[in-house]
From TrEMBL:
One of its GO terms (cellular component) is plasma membrane. It comes from Acidovorax soli. PANTHER family: HISTIDINE KINASE, SENSOR HISTIDINE KINASE YKOH. Its EC number is 2.7.13.3. The keyword Phosphoprotein applies. Its main location: membrane. This is histidine kinase.
């Protein structure tokens, strides 16, 4: 399972569980909260109505149908009063209070709906507790199995006149206010729907944030992965791979940024170690032959030798010393190039100028072997470093001069952003073509000797890598053709 999917799954799991419990708590608290507010208002209503009914109850005007009771008359008028109130988007068109009054024995004297006059309510919780001086309330369903048919009853004591404090007054009856809970159910339903809708919206926004955070995290992790892949050590013989493929250290925040910088430091150390190890191995192998030749010639020169032999061995020492010098010089050049990551160019450079400069540098060596150097075509101009382009062409010309037969010609052909060096020598075996450009890889010269170091084409390949170009080599029978394709503007 990918990292992004795991992060999304974990985020949705945690977010879903949290949202479930939060919404559950909210929806579970809405109904009791609304009913608590409703009960609080009914307590006030019951108490004020109890005070209004006290005189009629003590005077006995609530007996026998309460015909002469002002309180009963006003309650009945209240029940028939027209009402049309807009309450937070809901229309209220009926008055829902049921009011009944019982005497001190719990017998119903007055009922605004005339449903229970004369009934014994002394066992009902609202009446019984109030007659004992306690808070009396109850909730009863009109239909036992229907929770929506519940009716809330809140009672208040009716005191006889007299006494300076409520605690000193005698309870002579109970007034109960009843209200169906269905009248507030629509407010409860709307509140629950709003909570659920807000919860769904919050869940969607949280999901969007989770997706965004996951994508951000995965994007940065993938940048680190791509960077790690781009800077991993090259395969053997592939040290000349274009450095342009190596990404810059990704700018990521926090611990990921620390990890990126740590990876870059580790890469630099590993590259330095591998670079030194590879150079030591290759250089040791390459120096064995000339050092052995110089040592052998030197040991022989310590003996008494004919003048001709002494001259031959002295010449061998000089030649091998020159070979060592060439290896060291080119190794230094290649080492400098491999420490660079790109070419430096400030103004457009003409390939023809670089080709002419390279021909001028190698013309003397070519003349010693009777080889003619020619430049044809017109190359393009571009953002290249002239010293490096000239260095690459010089190495190609030196290599071509080594392989070209005496009296032949080496041509430098320009066409747009391409420069080709063509000789008329024997070429190289097909199996060796892919390896040309590897450090210290050489092929036999036409005379059978292996005097080259294999560093010339390695330098050319590195120069092309710094310019983002490429080197192509092919046999042309006769000769070898090396083409340099520079990246244009």
């Amino acid at each position: 399972m990918r990292l992004g999917i795991r992060l999304l799954f974990a985020f949705f799991l945690i977010n879903g569980i949290a949202a479930f419990f939060v919404l559950r708590v909210f929806t579970a608290e809405i109904k009791p909260s609304v009913r608590e507010v409703m009960e609080d208002m009914m307590v006030d209503t019951a108490n004020i109505l109890a005070e209004l009914a006290s005189d009629d109850l003590v005077a006995g005007r609530l007996e026998g149908g309460a015909v002469d009771s002002a309180f009963a008359r006003h309650v009945r008028i209240y029940a028939t009063r027209p009402i049309d109130a807009a309450i937070w988007g809901f229309s209220k068109q009926s008055l829902d209070y049921r009011i009944y009054v019982t005497d001190a024995r719990g017998r119903v004297l007055f009922d605004s709906e005339n449903r229970a006059v004369g009934a014994d309510y002394s066992q009902w919780r609202d009446v019984a507790r109030t007659l004992r001086g306690e808070y009396g309330a109850r909730s009863t369903r009109d239909i036992p199995d229907d929770d929506a048919s519940g009716v809330m009853h809140v009672a208040a004591p009716i005191y006889a006149p007299g006494g300076s404090a409520t605690a000193e007054r005698r309870i002579v009856g109970v007034l109960t206010v009843a209200k169906p809970t269905r009248t507030v159910q629509r407010f409860i339903d709307r509140a629950e729907n709003k909570v659920l809708a807000s919860g769904v919206l919050l869940l969607a926004l949280s999901a969007a944030v989770g997706v965004a955070v996951t994508l951000w995290m995965v994007w940065n992790v993938r940048r680190l992965r791509d960077y790690a892949l781009s800077v991993q050590g090259p395969a053997a013989g592939d040290r000349d791979s274009p450095p342009a493929t190596a990404l810059a250290v990704p700018e990521v925040p926090g611990e990921l940024g620390d990890l990126a910088r740590a990876m870059d430091r580790m890469r630099a150390r590993l590259e330095g170690r591998d670079y030194i190890e590879g150079y030591v191995r290759a250089l040791t192998h390459e120096l064995k032959s000339p050092v052995a030749a110089i040592r052998g010639a030197g040991e022989l020169l310590q003996d008494e030798l004919p003048a001709a032999d002494r001259a031959e061995f002295a010449t061998q020492v000089v030649q091998q010393s020159e070979r060592l010098q060439r290896i060291i010089d080119r190794l230094l050049e290649l080492s400098k190039l491999e420490q660079r990551h790109h070419a430096d160019a400030q103004a457009p450079v003409a390939l023809q100028d670089c080709a002419n400069a390279a021909v001028a540098q190698t013309r003397g060596r070519a003349g010693q072997r009777g080889i003619e150097l020619t430049v044809s075509g017109s190359g393009a101009s571009g953002p290249w470093e002239p010293e490096l382009v000239t260095l690459a062409l010089t190495n190609l010309l030196d290599n071509a001069i080594d392989f070209a037969p005496g009296g032949s010609s080496v041509r430098v052909e320009l066409a747009g952003t391409t420069v080709a060096v063509q000789d008329s020598g024997p070429g190289v075996p097909d199996y060796a073509l892919p390896r040309l450009g590897e450090r210290f890889f050489t092929t036999a010269r036409p005379g059978g000797e292996r005097s080259g170091s294999g560093l010339g084409l390695a330098i050319v390949r590195r120069v092309m890598a710094l310019h983002g170009g490429q080197m192509a080599v092919r046999n042309t029978a006769p000769g070898l053709r090396v083409e340099l394709e520079f990246r244009g503007v």
